[in-house]
Design goal:
The protein contains 20 helices and 17 strands. The chain is an alpha/beta fold and about 500 residues long.
């Protein structure tokens, strides 16, 4: 099974059912899951430790019963709490409970335990926690005992990462077969700790039936896009590597576009030109060497520049200014059928008017990537179901991409990249140090530079987000946006 693939809760249910139908009993899958939990727990504690296992009413609780039995067999002191009478358990959970020979408690103090195993509820929880489970979670949190979660920390929605009232922050989470979206989407990601995916022997042959033709949903990483990543050949030269035209804003607001332009050049675009108003020419020229500069005052000037078909990608938005003039430039850029990267002011200029932008992109026949942060996304998509407060970030990005007809990169600690056909990727390869002025401008430039070299929009966006994150991780503390393009040689050397 592809290691980068994400499974929704429903797809995982189908996979369980398919594995059982193919001849693996459910209790055997549960024993394998519990064994994986016990193995991980053993690596988190010293020998002969006291471990508290909290079991809920379903299969997640059954996994807990199995883990408890194996840990006790290995010499640990195990206290097992079940939130429901054992006789009320059904199915495989009841079989697993019957194999546990120790006492079943209905209350226990976490103080003094080396580890708490959270087997209360799995990824399919769809309501806020209350009653005894909530009380146990509050007590464990107050005690400060390390937590190992099974599947997801109880209280985290496996599909959306949403917090269902309360959840424990785990030091590690063991899930099975594949990660779920909620492992990567915030706030769920912050509750999971180290993620461990256990192979419990489900046959790959069941994969197609379980996904049932659903669009690709992945954890972002090189496995997803490296086969489409630009590669130089002996005959490569600057004109075969594409030419990005980056639109500059007025004087004193040019830094953002220069950051983007340098990123496009560093990621491999053969040429990059900044199209600048006359009043900003000297300012831009003072900072540019390898990046070229050309005058451009109006949408008509841009139209004249684009007669040169070698200008195959247009980057608009960073520092450009919001308003009618920017809308006109976007209309011209879209109309010539080149690849577009739209960020910042280019998106804000269409505040609440996503339909006209969608029409421009569709009529131009070009390929577009939009890179909004949450505020720009909300302004652009205002009044659409993409900003439905009940929708997850993943669902919102997918709806926006389908509505606009473009790849949408919804930035943040859990950046989501979504394509119009429903494909999506969630990125967790990044660092909070990227939360600095100009970081998003660099990302837009990386996307443009990869598009210029012929990478398809979805793959280019996914690669740019991952490489941007990798640069941040490699640099670490003290990062400013100017550092990011200069990190690209190291990042690319590590990729290859």
């Amino acid at each position: 099974m592809p290691t980068h693939r994400l499974f929704t809760v429903e797809a995982m249910r189908r996979l369980d059912a398919a594995a059982i139908a193919a001849g693996t009993p459910g209790i055997e899958l549960m024993r394998r899951a519990g064994a994986a939990v016990a193995e991980t727990a053993t690596g988190l504690v010293a020998a002969l430790s006291r471990i508290l296992v909290l079991c809920g009413p379903g299969n997640n609780g059954g996994d807990g019963f199995v883990a408890a039995r194996l840990l006790e067999r290995d010499g640990h002191v195990v206290n097992l709490v079940c939130t429901v009478p054992v006789e009320s358990l059904t199915g495989d959970a009841a079989l697993a409970a019957a194999e546990w020979e120790g006492p079943v408690l209905y209350d226990a103090e976490p103080e003094g335990a080396a580890l708490v195993i959270d087997a209360l509820f799995g990824a399919g929880l769809s309501r806020d926690l209350d009653g005894l489970p909530r009380m146990l979670i509050e007590r464990v949190a107050a005690a400060g005992v390390p937590v190992l979660a099974i599947d997801v920390p109880s209280g985290i929605d496996g599909d959306t990462g949403a917090l269902r009232g309360i959840a424990l922050k785990a030091v590690a989470t063991v899930t099975f077969v594949a990660l779920k979206p909620g492992h990567l989407l915030q706030p769920g990601r912050s509750y999971c700790g180290d993620l461990h995916v256990a192979d419990i022997g489900m046959a790959d042959v069941a994969l197609d039936s379980c996904l049932d033709g659903t669009p690709l949903l992945c954890r972002n990483g090189p496995d997803l896009w490296e086969d489409r990543f630009p590669k130089l050949e002996a005959g490569s030269h600057k004109y075969t590597r594409g030419h990005v035209l980056a639109l500059s804003g007025p004087a004193y607001k040019t830094g953002a576009i220069r950051l983007a332009a340098r990123a496009a050049l560093r990621i491999g675009a053969g040429l990059v030109t900044i199209a600048s108003p006359a009043a900003a020419m000297a300012e831009n020229a003072a900072h540019l060497t390898a990046i070229m500069l050309t005058p451009c005052e109006t949408a008509d000037d841009l139209d004249d520049l684009l007669v040169d078909e070698r200008l195959n990608v247009i980057l608009a938005g960073p520092g450009l200014g919001s308003g009618e003039a920017t809308r006109e430039r976007v209309a011209v850029a879209a109309g010539v059928g080149r690849s577009l990267v739209l960020d910042a002011d280019a998106l804000t200029s269409f505040k609440g008017e996503v339909a006209p932008l969608s029409s421009l992109i569709a009529d131009g026949g070009g390929q577009a990537v939009l890179t909004p942060h949450a505020g720009e996304f909300g302004r652009l998509l205002a009044g659409t179901d993409a900003v439905d407060p009940q929708a997850s970030k993943l669902e919102g990005a997918r709806r926006a991409a389908a509505l606009i007809g473009a790849v949408v990169v919804l930035k943040g600690a859990d950046t989501v990249i979504a394509a119009p056909d429903g494909r999506a990727a969630i990125n967790d390869h990044a660092t909070p140090y990227l939360g600095t002025a100009g970081s998003g401008d660099v990302l837009a430039g990386l996307v443009a530079g990869l598009l210029a070299q012929g990478m398809p929009p979805f793959e280019a966006a996914c690669a740019a987000v991952w490489l941007h994150g990798d640069a941040g991780l490699r640099h670490g503390p003290g990062l400013i946006a100017e550092d990011l393009p200069e990190m690209m040689p190291r990042v690319l050397a590590g990729l290859r």
